[in-house]
Amino acid sequence: MHSNEPIERQSLQKILARIREDFYHNQHPRTLFRDQIVLCQAITWPAAWLHDKGLHLPPQRYEALIVQRLDEIVKHGNRAQYQTYFPRYLMQCLQQWFLRHGDRLCDELRHVRHALWQTDQIIRAIQQSQPPDHAYTQNLAQAHRIISSQRRRKCASENH
Q: Which of 72, 88, 122, 158 has the fewest Cβ atoms surrounding its Cβ within 10 A?
């Protein structure tokens, strides 16, 4: 990864590399290539969820949230289910986690300490001429919407 690449791209590449190591290591490289867009859709889904609620996570925390879910799948996941089509399994795991824990995460992110921390991060980003963390979540949410709309159009054109 190059340091001049956008942080969102670096994050996606890091997470995809982790997925490749944990879930695609025994499969043909074409399988990961085939699944890559749907994996990106699953990886960016939490950003869309957060953005819709007006919440933001810094890149490191967002990556950690996804990696924690991947660790849980490795430890407790149903291998027979996820070997069939891992992107769908990952999306379901992420959605179920947010269904169970999303309210707690919202409360934490709306707490005054987080707001103060976010303000501090914005000031530091301005001083360092970097985009603030909320731009990270917003950009990933935008990527999710683009990927999702392209997949819907592709599926619709294949059905006609």
A: 158
Show the tokens assigned to 150. Answer: 């392209």
Between residues 7 and 24, the one the model is more confident about: 24
Please report the DSSP string for 56-93 in residue order: ---HHHHHHHHHHHHHHHHHH--HHHHHH-HHHHHHHH
Written as one letter, the residue type at 35 is D
List the chain domain ranges.
7-159
pTM assigned to the model: 0.73
82 C-beta neighbours (distance < 10 Å), count: 18
For the stretch 82-133, pLDDT in tens is 777 899 999 999 999 999 999 898 888 777 666 676 676 667 666 666 655 6
